[in-house]
Amino acid sequence: MKKTLKLVFDGQVFQPEEPVDLTSNTCYFAIIEKIEEGLKRYLTVLLDEFGNVLWI
């Protein structure tokens, strides 16, 4: 199972911005990255995959 969640760090814990369908009291592995970095990587993958295609 793989999920992408938008989280906010309040200085102590990460809080999801919307409800999450996960089992309580279960350990999960997470990779944390700033949205800006993730967005850059996502756009790079899209450009590599589709080139400079304009979607309308």
Blueprint of the fold:
Layout: E1 7-9, E2 14-16, H1 35-50
Antiparallel strand pairs: 1-2
Question: How would you portray this structure in words?
Answer:
The protein is an alpha+beta fold and 56 residues long. It is 29% helix and 11% strand. It has one helix and two strands; from the N terminus they run E-E-H. Strands 1-2 form a two-stranded antiparallel ribbon.
Strand content: 5-15%
DSSP strand count: 2
Strand order of the largest sheet: 1-2
- Assign the structural class, choosing from mainly alpha, mainly beta, alpha/beta, alpha+beta, or little secondary structure: alpha+beta
The pLDDT mean sits at 82
Written as H for each helix and E for each strand, in order along the chain, the element string is: EEH
As an assembly, this protein is single chain
* Uncertain runs: none
Helix proportion = 25-40%
- How far apart, in Å, are the first and last alpha carbons? 32 Å
| Total count of helical runs of at least 4 residues | 1
How is the biggest beta sheet arranged?
A: 2 strands, antiparallel
Shape: elongated
Radius of gyration: 15 Å
